[in-house]
Amino acid sequence: MKLKVIILSFSVFAYTGFTAQNIQNNPGSNHGNKFEQLGTILPTPNIYRTASGAPGHGYWQNRADYNITAYLDEDKRNLKGSETVTYYNNSPDDLDYIWLQLDENEHSNIRNAGYDASSVLRPSTTDQQLKATELPVKDNGYGVSLEKVTDASGNTLKYTVNKTMMRIDLPKVLKKGEKFVFKVDWNYNISNRMKMGGRGGYENFPEDGNDLYTMTQWYPRMCVYSDFQGWQNHQFTGRGEFALVFGDFKVSVNVPSDHIVGGTGECKNYDQVLTSDQLSRYRKAENASEPIEIVTLDEAKKAEKNHSKQRKTWVFEAKDVRDFAWTSSRKFVWDGMRVTIPENNNKVMAMSFYPKESYGLYRKFSTKAVAHTIKTYSEFTIPYPYPVAQSVEAANGMEYPMICFNFGRTEKDGTYSEGTKNGMLGVIIHEVGHNFFPMIINSDERQWAWMDEGLNTFTEYLTEEKWDNKFPSKRGPAWTIVDYMKLPKDQLEPIMSNSENIVQYGPNAYSKPATGLNILRETIMGRELFDKAFKTYAKRWAFKHPEPADLFRTMEDASGEDLDWFWRGWFYGTDPVDIAIDKVTVAVPNLETDPKAAAEVKYQVERPLVNSFEDLSKIRNREDKNIKFYVDTDKAAQDFYYKYDRGQEKVDNNKEYTIKTEAGLPLDAKDKEKFKNITGYQIDFVNKGGLVMPIILEFTFEDGSKLYDKSAAQIWRLNEQKVSKTYYFEKKVKSIQLDPMRETADIDTNNNFWSSTGSGTETSKFQLFKQKQEGGTVRGGSTGKVNPMQAAGKS
């Protein structure tokens, strides 16, 4: 779903709710926290989900096939449906009930989820908004009316409706490998989406008296039963979206005969519902490289004027999809073209449906944007597998398999602003992109909004970039998340938070995860490693149900990069990035340093190297008569020091010996010439924000040249608060810029700059000595001093 980013500046109250916890390993210390492994924060790997992030050998998921008939009553604005569901239990568990979702109950004022929001008196309102509070609340007439729930033989099934969820009690236990067939008849009044909100409903066009229907969450849908949660039957509050099972759909939609219908999957009876001219144009569009109008603008305008009382039934089929949505209106212009996915040679019908109000934009761009999106997403994830991809202009932004609902309308004269155009392109790319996340890589939106919205927004950004290099993307680049990261902590929560408990939903579920993935790709991992790992995740979890740990583990497994520090900070924490240049120390070598003179050093022979305190283990071992110490049983092991430690060898430890140190070497003329222009720069950094990131520097020299350097985030591993980095250059540094390309989402760039002309900048000197060419003392070798054996005259 496409959301506009709105950063709120007012204070909000804290809340309670499930949040994945960022458990600290070494609290109170300046290290040992940010770079520790996630450990017990992630679920324990098992036969269903491996430590590599791949599905395990025991992975399973259940399935549901649907055969649905629907009747759209335009006069009453009512939808009547009947479905036969075949549910397959592939789990190792016995099931004695199943859960279905009745999402339309969210529009009911007596059967919704009951997730009330805090409300206050407004300083101003309108006559449409102001009305007396009704207590008790009266039924507004919306929500699902269940007419019949039976098994395949027509026997009534016992069921319980709890707000937006329905439990059906099975007549007998559904065992592993078995299936259960049941039927549901229902109807509901279709809501005015423009007034009541929501993802589906109708929009009325007063000028011509027609409706445009977007039919979403319109049928009782199976809940997911999974290895990691059991039944996902959390209530639908209108925010946290959906968790759904894959299956095959056959859907027959009966609508007024002058309506044009688009739906998930392929229509199987175009020859029965289209005119001969429209069918001919559709056949031509199937092989066209440019969009062809299947229903023309003139035909749509003509249809607006006559409300037919005749009926037609459109039949759709879709395989391996998690949902089915459709749209219906006599207002639609419809165009299409063929696009081939190079990775699998899949020939896809890209199509768009739109009213005349958006003709000037959608005719130019929509279908081409659909084609561009599925081709680009296929490059970065998996090849698009479905036969159809559709965009519908419905003043909306919502996604379903093979069909999505978008926005973008022109002025009455056909012109449009650049913002409207870019918004339209962005929403089409985003919603069509949702075919991949979560329609194929099928995460649990109800629990983890970011797993589809964040990953999709990231890939949307890649796709926008490949549409137009000057496209003004609002999500993805690191600098675009800064305003959100600056907010007070009581307006933030970790990305790893339940969908219902997020204050700033757009930045948290969309922007921050998308930005994080882009930082990984551009700054931390590099494009090659990231792209391979991201594609691996998509391939592993296509047509399956991934969890966050599956993504985190796969990205590491396929890249060879330890990213636990990044997941911990960016996804489990709320700290921002604010790395500051605290101080720059400048020094030049003293080329006239006097070398150290030779000297005589007095010393005494080492005393026995035994512990000054005998611990409890040594005492108990000595008193234990069953313990035989090796050196006591092997006389050959009883050397000089065995006896020296026990006082059996005597050495004069007070006698003084003398050792002579060698003199240092002075710098010669060649050395002085070599180092005369060297200047050292010690840069002290402070981690003011808390979130560690790579240190990226741009050095500008007095001659105008520039050099760049990047230290990996691991530079902070031994001190997460302060680090220093030293450089030596043969040219004078004029300025140092931290994060010059704003690629780490640093919230305060004012402390990212140092200038040599700034106040307090002084140059000191450091001593420079010539190093002898021969190697130093060999580890474990002679130090040149007399040892106790030599002092005792032993060899």
From TrEMBL:
Residues 372-570 form the Peptidase M1 membrane alanine aminopeptidase domain. Residues 1-20 form the signal peptide. Pfam families: Peptidase_M1. CDD domains: M1_APN_like. InterPro entries: Peptidase_M1_aminopeptidases (IPR050344), Peptidase_M1_dom (IPR014782), Peptidase_M4/M1_CTD_sf (IPR027268). Keywords: Signal. Residues 772-795 are annotated as: Disordered. It comes from the Bacteria. This is Peptidase M1 membrane alanine aminopeptidase domain-containing protein.
